[in-house]
Every structure is written in structure tokens, then in C-alpha cells.
Write a structure and sequence with these properties.
The protein has 272 residues and is α/β, with parallel strands linked by helices. The chain folds into two domains: 229 residues, TIM Barrel (Alpha-Beta Barrel), CATH 3.20.20; 30 residues, no CATH class. The chain is 42% helix and 13% strand. It is built from eleven helices and eight strands. It has an eight-stranded parallel β-barrel, surrounded by seven helices. Strand 4, helix 6 and strand 5 form a beta-alpha-beta unit. Helix 4 runs parallel beside helix 5 and helix 5 packs across helix 6. The longest helix is centred in the middle third of the chain and has 17 residues. It binds 3-methyl-2-oxobutanoic acid. The site of 3-methyl-2-oxobutanoic acid has 11 residues, from strand 6.
Length: 272
């Protein structure tokens, strides 16, 4: 299979399937605000996820559960204003789609209408099948999310690797096939054994985007603030840090404090 990279002016849901078919890996990162999204989009990332991880990263909550639909729409609108090339996917937050398909559709419509996003992501398999179908029927592209689904953290009890047991692995493959069949354009697969992730990617024709799922999938996603090292207390095995911004920013800000206190800043050329 060729790994040649084709130039795409604008990434769409169709582009992602094309990438899978050509063997080109898909790059995906989170962003929650205009400035970061501008950098991420300008760097050539294919998919920007306005993740409900904003609940942890931006608001400091312990889980993704507290973030609201209004807050997701605020983050998504800021990201959309910055993006020229990437496909923007927005998480439906906890409580905005689990009760019934009508409510799920209302929430998805609000995200699309009020933020200008290109698609939505929902966590879960057969238990939310009817909700996903309802959203798809309205013409809204849906990305699935299987494996570790952080909105169900209190059901799982921990953030450890999912589907290590055969029954859960078989169910996960069934869910992936069901999501493909009803029309999802891609699936995020979080924290499952690499061998299982490979099997899932081979079992469906839509792209599987992994996080902690090894490299035999169709793309990778990370939380931006983790991969640039702004969050420094989080050390999962799957995370590769490309910068240590926590350290660099702390040093720069401490230097600024010193410069202000010592009247080194501002100097003559930095004033009017
Ligand atoms: O909310 C998020 O950032 C996510 C990724 C971890 C895939 O869902």
C-alpha cells in the first residue's frame, strides 16, 4: 500500500475514507480556542477535535462529565473561526444525547447551527444506535467513539485499558461494524490492546483513529495540551510529548516577574 501524501485543500469526511484507502495515516488533535486552532490548522493537522476533554484541560474538572452543551458550542465557535483546512469534529457532551434520539438530534443541530462545526462525535455503541441514526438522517456526519469512553468513567471505575477480555473485544468489533453500517464516517478507538485495534481497523472500511491503540490503525489523535507538554501531571504510556511547555512557560513567566520587580521591563525601547 502506498503511503504517498496527497495534498488536500480542505479535509472532508470523504477525504478521510480516501486517506484510509490510500494508506495515508490521518492526524487528529484537539483544540478548544481560536489561537491554538489557528496553529494546529496551519500545521497541517487533518482533523481538529473540539473534545469534551475541554472539561479537564480548559476548566480543570476531574472528568469530562460537567461540561455543558453551551460551553461546547462556545469552544467550537472559537475553533471554527480559525480553521481553513481541517475537518472540525465536536463532542456531544455528557447528558446531551443519552436520554433519547430526539434530544440527541436537538443537541447535534445546536452544535452545527450555532458553531458552524462540520460533524459531531458521540461515545458508545449499540446503546446509542437510534440516536446516531437520527442525527445521520438529518445530514449531520457522525464520528463514533469506542473502547475507553471517558463519559462512562463511573461505570468503568478506572481509566485502564479496555477490551482485554474476549467478550468485550467481540462486542467492540460488533459495535464498530454496526457504526460503519449505519453510516458513521470514522471511529475513535481509545485505549485498547494494539492487536484488537488492528483487527477493528481491518474489519471496517471507515477510518479507525486510535489513542492508546497502537499504530495499526488509520490515524492517531492526542490531546493538544498533553502532546505539547502543558499538562505535566498526566503520564499515560501512549502519550508522546513533543515539547515541555509547562517548563518553558514557567521559566519565561518567572523571568517576566523578575524583570518587572527589578524594573528591567519595560526598557527605553519598549515605551513611548
Ligand atoms: O475529548 C477528547 O479529547 C477525546 C479524545 C481523547 C479522543 O475524545
Amino acid at each position: 500500500m502506498s503511503t504517498a501524501k496527497k495534498e488536500y485543500k480542505r479535509v472532508t469526511v470523504k477525504t478521510l475514507v480516501e486517506m484510509k484507502n490510500h494508506g495515508e495515516k490521518i492526524s487528529m488533535l484537539t483544540a478548544y480556542d481560536y489561537t491554538m486552532a489557528k496553529i494546529v490548522d496551519g500545521s497541517g493537522v487533518d482533523v481538529i477535535l473540539v473534545g469534551d476533554s475541554a472539561s479537564n484541560v480548559m476548566a480543570g474538572h476531574e472528568t469530562t462529565l460537567p461540561i455543558t452543551l453551551d460551553q461546547m458550542i462556545y469552544h467550537a465557535s472559537s475553533v471554527i473561526r480559525a480553521v481553513n483546512r481541517a475537518l472540525v469534529v465536536v463532542d456531544l457532551p455528557f447528558g446531551s444525547y443519552q436520554s433519547d434520539p430526539k434530544e440527541a438530534l436537538r443537541s447535534a443541530i445546536r452544535i452545527m447551527k450555532e458553531s458552524g462545526a462540520h460533524s459531531v462525535k458521540l461515545e458508545g455503541g449499540r446503546e446509542i444506535k437510534e440516536s446516531i441514526k437520527r442525527i445521520l438522517n438529518a445530514g449531520i456526519p457522525v464520528m463514533g467513539h469506542l473502547g475507553l469512553t471517558p463519559q462512562s468513567i463511573y461505570k468503568f471505575g478506572t481509566y485502564t485499558v479496555r477490551a482485554k477480555e474476549e467478550k468485550e473485544a467481540i462486542d467492540l468489533i460488533k459495535d464498530a461494524k454496526m457504526l460503519e453500517k449505519i453510516g458513521c464516517f470514522a471511529i475513535v478507538l481509545e485505549k485498547v490492546p494494539a492487536a484488537l485495534a488492528k483487527k477493528v481497523a481491518e474489519s471496517v472500511s471507515i477510518p479507525i483513529i486510535g489513542i492508546g491503540a497502537g499504530h495499526d490503525v488509520d490515524g492517531q489523535v492526542l490531546v493538544l495540551h498533553d502532546m505539547i507538554g502543558m499538562t505535566h501531571e498526566f503520564h499515560p504510556r501512549f502519550l508522546r510529548r513533543y515539547l515541555n511547555l509547562y517548563k518553558d512557560m514557567t521559566e519565561a513567566i518567572s523571568q517576566y516577574v523578575n524583570d518587572v520587580k527589578s524594573i528591567d521591563f519595560p526598557n527605553h525601547s519598549e515605551q513611548y
